[in-house]
Design brief:
The protein has 318 residues and is of the alpha/beta class. It is 44% helix and 14% strand.
């Protein structure tokens, strides 16, 4: 492959794309705590980007120098829109383009997108080809998916590997399982073995239930993986990418002050017009936890109508 992969170390660690969670604000906070080797955007709909709704979606593609290298993750079902969007993403300075073929949310799957592509492989291949055409060899193209739809089906990742993608991230569950069962790392290992036979140049990243860097390193070593992706682990520990996290020694005041930093950055980045304050509710449980009065403080935080009110509540709690 002529295009260069944005990280050279192995195993590398990746912050997972999570819709309405891993925006530029959270990514900057994570970068200040303990930066991963590679960031992903939230997943962005290419059909929406190529429509009058484009301005509302562009905010999902905002990033700062602090968040580099960063890969844009996209989804949709119109190959031509994938091609156009890929061309734009290259011009925006992204280090790569990732295709979401694994999100199991029912409304998205019902619309024929993401995990639905596991059962519509002709369209999946058209989409991969369209993105490759749009990227024109300038940036890596990758896929994030699951082990299968209703049951494990290794013919699916095998097909993806035959497309000569630069990276394949495997979430260790089927679409049907969503997040209701433990991630199946033995099956991720089977995909890695497939990679060794079919496309040794493709990097394999494992994803599912990783709660610390130490755990990720053990899994990468055991299954000979190139990378580890961590998603929900940041809700328990914003320092999850650190060799030795200091989060569990943080005092009540330190946790509140980090949330104040997050709220302040959110306010300066979005204001009230682009993202309402209630978007911050999901982040309360990252910072406001494991100290006396945390439950009551979280409840007070979720009652506010503006970022100014939220800052006042947090300041009063110090």
């Amino acid at each position: 492959m002529s295009r260069s992969f944005p990280v050279s170390n192995s195993p590398f660690f990746v912050l997972a794309p999570m819709d309405d969670v891993t925006d530029t604000v959270l990514r900057q906070i994570i970068a200040d705590c303990a930066t991963p080797d590679l960031f992903f955007t939230e997943f962005v709909n290419v059909d929406g980007l190529q429509s009058p709704g484009r301005p509302q979606l562009l905010k999902k593609l905002q990033f700062t120098a602090k968040e580099k290298p960063i890969i844009a993750q996209v989804w949709g079902k119109n190959p031509e829109n994938f091609k156009k969007t890929a061309q734009e993403l290259v011009d925006m300075g992204f280090a790569g383009i990732d295709l979401n073929m694994g999100c199991p949310v029912k409304a998205i799957v019902k619309n024929g997108c993401c995990a639905a592509l596991i059962n519509n492989r002709e369209l999946a291949l058209q989409i991969i080809d369209a993105v490759k055409q749009g990227a024109a060899g300038k940036v890596p193209v990758s896929v994030k998916t699951r082990l299968g739809f209703n049951e494990k089906d290794l013919s699916w990742p095998g097909l993806i590997l035959k497309q000569n993608v630069d990276m394949l991230t495997i979430h260790g569950r089927t679409a049907k399982e969503m997040s209701k069962v433990a991630a199946d790392w033995e099956s991720i290992d089977e995909v890695r073995k497939l990679r060794d036979r079919i496309a040794p140049q493709t990097k394999i990243v494992g994803n599912g239930d990783v709660m610390s860097r130490r755990q990720g390193l053990k899994l990468a070593k055991k299954y000979n993986l190139d990378g580890i992706m961590i998603g929900r682990g940041i809700f328990s520990d914003p320092f999850v990418f650190s060799d030795s996290s200091q989060w569990f020694e943080f005092s009540r005041e330190q946790k509140i002050r980090l949330f104040i930093k997050h709220v302040g950055l959110f306010a300066s980045t979005w204001g009230q017009s682009k993202r309402p304050v209630h978007v911050l509710n999901k982040f309360c449980k990252i910072y406001i936890q494991d100290f006396d009065g945390a439950k009551e403080l979280r409840e007070n935080c979720m009652k506010v109508e503006s970022t100014d009110e939220l800052l006042n509540v947090l300041d009063a709690a110090l």
